[in-house]
TrEMBL record:
The lineage of its organism: Bacteria, Pseudomonadati, Pseudomonadota, Alphaproteobacteria, Rhodobacterales. This is Lytic murein transglycosylase. It comes from the Bacteria. It comes from Lutimaribacter degradans.
Length: 392
């Protein structure tokens, strides 16, 4: 169900030479396709293969519509988590953990990624492979590369798809996936498949749509490539004191567990998991659920850039690893999409960069909320309320 892009691909695009980043986009579709073909041939692809691949490329307006429609990320963490994490999905995950136990053992031994982490992605991305998307991948990538919003991201992925086709692991007519071009059970973009694909079942191919061993091994390798640290935790639920310096919360502050403990923060169950620098995460403010995020948590943002998605995936990974259901607390009522847009307009009027008026509580909006909460003497926990809107 991926609705944002792999940030790994963003970092790859950022590393490209400046000329490559200024990808051609827009204009005549035929001229665009011809330009892609010429670039692929210049990269060493077989001209006949390139011609076969590009001959059938078509624009897909449904892809553009999906790219501009991401309202699910307007939901708060508790609502989003309850929508995605059902009893049946948890039970299915436990079943898949048993069914593919030997593969998960190989993934953990080779890449250091625990089963729960991959199971959570497998569940959220495709419901354990059941729903992998029905967009024609070649057309989706071409459409998004032609669109001038992010050509520097999608043009390299389209070229990578041509390379996969030449390798025999991509069919431009039949390969389908998510609207943003991700393929397979754990949804990887073509360039990520080339760089991190693993033949987990030994058949000589990397087929993420039909082979669970290929998908899980490839997902594990990609997480390791993105910085996953073996043997370390990623998220732990905590309980908070009635009062503390709420401005210490957020991903920009990291403290040792003994420092959090000195402030009155306690693990909900058991002991602190590790003596690692960690951040206090309050997705719905100081009255809502609370988590300590360890360094591995940051790797989730290399897979997906939505804070709500990332926290939910990380939390579900802990559930699949034996953690209890989180305590929802009694957070102040959040804002609707339109109310959030009203807040963003007011924040922009005060000179804050919120990253656009989209009704989504993203990093820019959270930072602006914190600044205004501090100015107004409100708890600095990055959770926007109607009171904040009114006082602005």
């Amino acid at each position: 169900m991926r609705t944002t892009l792999l940030a790994a691909a963003l970092s790859l695009a950022a590393a490209l030479p400046a000329a490559a980043q200024q990808a051609q986009c827009g204009g005549s579709w035929s001229d665009f396709v011809e330009g892609v073909a010429q670039e692929a041939i210049a990269q060493g692809r077989d001209p006949a293969a390139v011609q076969r691949f590009t001959a059938s490329l078509r624009q897909d307006q449904k892809v553009l519509a999906a790219d501009r429609r991401q309202g699910v990320f307007q939901l708060d963490f508790t609502t989003f988590a309850r929508r995605l994490i059902s009893t049946s999905r948890l039970q299915k995950g436990q079943q898949m953990a048993r069914e593919w136990a030997s593969t998960f053992d190989r993934v953990q031994a080779r890449f250091g990624v625990p089963p729960g982490v991959l199971l959570a992605f497998w569940a959220f991305e495709t419901d354990y492979g059941a729903f992998q998307g029905d967009f024609n991948t070649a057309n989706a990538l071409a459409t998004l590369a032609h669109d001038c919003r992010r050509p520097e991201l999608f043009r390299p992925q389209l070229l990578a798809a041509i390379q996969l086709y030449e390798m025999g692991d991509f069919d431009p007519a039949r390969t389908t996936g998510a609207w943003a071009g991700e393929i397979g059970m754990v949804q990887m973009l073509p360039r990520d498949i080339i760089e991190n694909g693993v033949d987990g079942d030994g058949d000589g191919h990397v087929r993420l749509k039909t082979s669970a061993p290929d998908a899980l091994m490839s997902g594990g390798k990609m997480l390791q490539h993105l910085g996953w640290r073996a043997g370390e935790p990623w998220l732990q639920e905590v309980r908070l004191p009635a009062q503390m310096d709420w401005s210490q919360s957020g991903l920009n502050t990291t403290l040792r567990p003994d420092q959090w403990q000195a402030m009155g923060v306690r693990p909900r169950s058991g002991q602190w998991q590790a003596e690692l620098p960690a951040s206090l995460i309050l997705p719905q403010g100081h009255k809502g659920p609370a988590f300590i995020a360890y360094p591995n948590f940051n790797v989730y943002f290399e897979w997906n850039q939505s804070f709500t998605y990332v926290l939910t995936a990380a939390y579900f990974a802990t559930r699949l690893s034996g953690a209890p259901v989180f305590e929802p607390g009694t957070p102040d009522t959040g804002l609707s999409g339109e109310q959030m847009k009203e807040l963003q307009r007011k924040l922009e009027a005060r000179g804050h960069d919120v990253g656009g008026i989209d009704g989504i509580l993203g990093a820019g909006t959270r930072a602006a909320v914190r600044a205004e909460q501090a100015r107004l003497g409100l708890p600095v926990d990055a959770w926007p309320t109607r009171e904040l809107v009114n006082r602005l």
